[in-house]
């Protein structure tokens, strides 16, 4: 049935070729009748099928017809993309002449090309394997072992690939002992050749008189580099423990595996120079995400196990092996500490392990520049309200529990509860609740009261705008202070908080996401602040001035603060602000064009291409658009963390790539007085520029205590009230 379909496909291809390119098949020199070269056939096929990505795909499609005997060469069984190789269609044998109307011939051609493209990869592989078999036959070396013994040892340099002809072998690794047994027809030794790494296991003959077929490394690379499997699987005790896949640069990267085997493989591939210095490939991806699949206790145990001493070999071999493994582990730990810094001190298991390594790992740890103490549960000024809405201020850690807050306010035994109130209603907080501050949403307040007073509580939102106050502040001062505050919040956050946030903080005991959540909440505050101020300003003229000021403030993108830039633009794009037609009409056309240009950066099409192009032009330091970074939740939800009970390390690598962007953004210190840029050229021209009459401290206090309305229905009502 398949052959019939292939003949039908060949008939449609041949007919269209004769119709559209009648001179392609013709008599050639040296008595070659009615044929065409391999290169001409590939060229023709590439023009007919725009979906073909490479000439090798076209070669595979023609190879299907060669295998069926429809397209023949005088001597060759393989199709070659060459000017010097000529092929002839077996027209009479297969009845390829076929006349159809133009529409039917095009439909049949596309159907035939679709079939050939599906069969092409297998045909191409079969063709390559024929070539490999021929070349391997010339380089295979027969190797015989009369007595049982060791073929090679773990840590040895990889020099050959072996196929078992007769007998069997045990595969043994340090610390694990026997991991699997291989028999006739199975192979070993390939992994070290693919990765150019030391042997990952010891191979011991199980019996006398064992025979092997051996391919040495040079021949292996030369012959198999184009056909070696894209995927390599390593098994122990009959189960897959590691899966590697060939990347675009022909190197093999980890796709999945058990946590211990991934770690072992990454350490094994380290190449140490005479000083024991070298980077560990992919290790930062592993370390940033390890708590998802390998908690600190498991990681520390695996590192301890990796340093186990050799059970056999000379004293010199044991000493060399011990030194090598120690150097690799030290290098890994150094990278671990560099990534996590003082945060590791808050992990008792990790800290105990590091102290046992007898080295001062934290001596060079420096905390990033920023007013806030980074990477910890920061102290935060809490405002707790009484039933009569009078605030009580407390300085407590940002991740304080309900019990901590209650203990700081009332004496033990008093009948008081902590209540959270927002625009949607009220909710009593459970006594065992943690991280009270980060549990607060936008525009939510904490009240302390008795059970009988809970019905009296109401959420208080701003009823008057601050347009008069903002009028006294220069756009530049507001933009500067927004950026300064964003930078403080941004640098207070550790990259690993994104991992906890994405996978769920509750899955990581003791994990802190308070700093990240505070940063995200400030983004929401800024966007609702913009629309709140517009909707609370009843005077049309003042409202137009305020709208223009917000567009000026949005020019802070030139200060490389994309987070607040998008917050302001999101606020201006809110439906309650957009419907203020009379206000927008009073905005100069030049300012409107600037706003429209900024708005286009929010375009989500083509995976937020406009935003990515804007970021590509920036150099550190800059503040990214954090809500967009948090969209990597889709990476998490769209890809399982485990595949066939193995860690999906490809997913971890994608998430780590996004997390490392945060580190790159703040790799340079931020100056609070940026140089004059495009924003100044746009807006700071002429005597109309307003200079701030307020002190920097007052602008700072204003920005850090924004009063907003987050209820969209109320905002819309206010918008309709001021502009019918």
Overview of the structural elements:
Residues 250-389 form the N-terminal Ras-GEF domain. It comes from Monopterus albus (Swamp eel). This is Rap guanine nucleotide exchange factor (GEF) 3. Residues 124-224 form the Cyclic nucleotide-binding domain. By secondary structure, the chain is of the alpha+beta class. Residues 368-377 and 673-693 have low confidence and may be disordered. It has five domains: 1-128, Winged helix-like DNA-binding domain superfamily/Winged helix DNA-binding domain (Arc Repressor Mutant, subunit A, Orthogonal Bundle), CATH 1.10.10; 133-227, Sandwich (Jelly Rolls); 237-356, Son of sevenless (SoS) protein, Chain S, domain 1 (Up-down Bundle), CATH 1.20.870; 380-456, Phosphatidylinositol 3-kinase Catalytic Subunit, Chain A, domain 1 (Ubiquitin-like (UB roll)); 466-673 and 695-704, Son of Sevenless (SoS) protein, Chain S, domain 2 (Orthogonal Bundle).
Structural features:
single chain, 724 residues, alpha+beta, Arc Repressor Mutant, subunit A, Jelly Rolls, Son of sevenless (SoS) protein, Chain S, domain 1, 5 domains, five-stranded antiparallel sheet, 48% helix, flat
């Amino acid at each position: 049935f398949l052959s019939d379909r292939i003949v039908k496909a060949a008939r449609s291809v041949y007919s269209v070729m004769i119709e559209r390119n009648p001179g392609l098949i013709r008599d050639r020199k040296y008595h070659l009748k009615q044929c065409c070269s391999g290169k001409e056939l590939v060229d023709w096929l590439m023009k007919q099928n725009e979906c073909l990505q490479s000439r090798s795909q076209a070669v595979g499609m023609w190879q299907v017809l060669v295998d069926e005997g429809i397209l023949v060469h005088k001597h060759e069984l393989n199709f070659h993309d060459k000017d010097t190789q000529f092929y002839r269609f077996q027209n009479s044998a297969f009845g390829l002449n076929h006349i159809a109307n133009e529409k039917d011939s095009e439909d049949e051609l596309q159907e035939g090309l679709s079939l050939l493209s599906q069969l092409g990869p297998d045909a191409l592989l079969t063709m390559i394997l024929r070539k490999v078999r021929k070349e391997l036959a010339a380089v295979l070396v027969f190797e015989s072992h009369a007595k049982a013994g060791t073929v090679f040892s773990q840590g040895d340099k990889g020099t050959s690939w072996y196929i078992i002809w007769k007998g069997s072998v045990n595969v043994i690794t340090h610390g694990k002992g026997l991991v699997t047994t291989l028999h006739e027809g199975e192979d070993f030794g390939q992994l070290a050749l693919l990765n150019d790494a030391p042997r990952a296991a010891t191979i011991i003959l199980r019996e006398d008189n064992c025979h092997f077929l051996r391919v040495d490394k040079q021949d292996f690379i030369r012959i198999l580099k184009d056909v070696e499997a894209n995927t390599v699987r390593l098994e122990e005790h009959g189960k897959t423990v590691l899966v590697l896949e060939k990347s675009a640069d022909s190197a093999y990267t980890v796709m999945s595996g058990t946590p211990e085997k991934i770690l072992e493989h990454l350490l094994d591939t380290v190449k140490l120079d005479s000083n024991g210095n070298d980077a560990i490939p992919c290790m930062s991806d592993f370390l940033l995400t390890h708590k998802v699949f390998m908690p600190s206790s498991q990681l520390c145990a695996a590192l301890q196990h990796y340093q186990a001493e050799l059970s056999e070999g000379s004293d010199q071999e044991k000493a060399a092996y011990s030194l090598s493994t120690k150097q690799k582990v030290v290098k890994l730990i150094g990278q671990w500490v560099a990534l996590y810094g003082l945060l590791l001190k808050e992990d008792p298991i990790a800290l105990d392990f590091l102290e046992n390594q007898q080295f001062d790992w934290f001596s060079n740890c420096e905390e990033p520049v920023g007013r806030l103490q980074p990477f910890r549960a920061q102290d935060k000024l809490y405002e707790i309200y009484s039933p009569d809405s009078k605030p009580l201020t407390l300085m407590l850690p940002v991740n304080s529990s309900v019990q901590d807050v209650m203990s700081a306010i009332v004496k033990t035994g008093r009948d008081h509860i902590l209540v959270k109130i927002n625009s949607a209603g009220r909710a009593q907080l459970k006594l065992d609740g943690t991280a009270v501050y980060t549990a607060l949403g936008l525009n939510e307040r904490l009240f302390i009261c008795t059970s009988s007073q809970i019905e009296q509580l109401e959420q208080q939102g701003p009823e008057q705008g601050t347009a008069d106050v903002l009028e006294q502040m220069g756009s530049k001062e507001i933009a500067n202070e927004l950026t300064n505050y964003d930078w403080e919040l941004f640098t207070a956050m550790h990259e690993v908080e994104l991992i906890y946030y994405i996978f769920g903080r509750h899955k990581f005991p003791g994990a802190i996401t308070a700093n990240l959540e505070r940063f995200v909440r400030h983004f929401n505050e800024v966007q609702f602040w913009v629309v709140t101020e517009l909707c609370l300003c009843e005077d049309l003229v003042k409202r137009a001035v305020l709208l223009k000021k917000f567009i000026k403030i949005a020019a802070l993108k030139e200060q490389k603060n994309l987070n607040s830039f998008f917050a302001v633009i999101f606020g201006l794009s809110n439906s309650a602000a957009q419907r203020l037609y009379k206000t927008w009409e009073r905005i100069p056309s030049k300012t409107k064009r600037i706003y429209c240009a900024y708005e286009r950066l929010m375009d989500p099409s083509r995976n937020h291409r406009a935003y990515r192009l804007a970021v590509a032009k920036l150099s550190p330091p800059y503040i990214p658009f954090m809500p967009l970074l948090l969209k990597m939740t889709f990476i998490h939800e769209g890809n399982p963390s485990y595949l066939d009970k193995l860690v999906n390390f490809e997913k971890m690598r994608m998430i780590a790539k996004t997390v490392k962007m945060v580190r790159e953004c703040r790799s340079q210190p931020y100056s609070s007085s940026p140089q004059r840029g495009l924003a100044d050229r746009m807006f700071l021209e002429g005597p109309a520029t307003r200079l701030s009459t307020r002190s920097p401290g007052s602008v700072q206090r204003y920005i850090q205590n924004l009063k907003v309305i987050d209820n969209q229905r109320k905002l819309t009502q206010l918008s309709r009230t001021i502009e019918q």
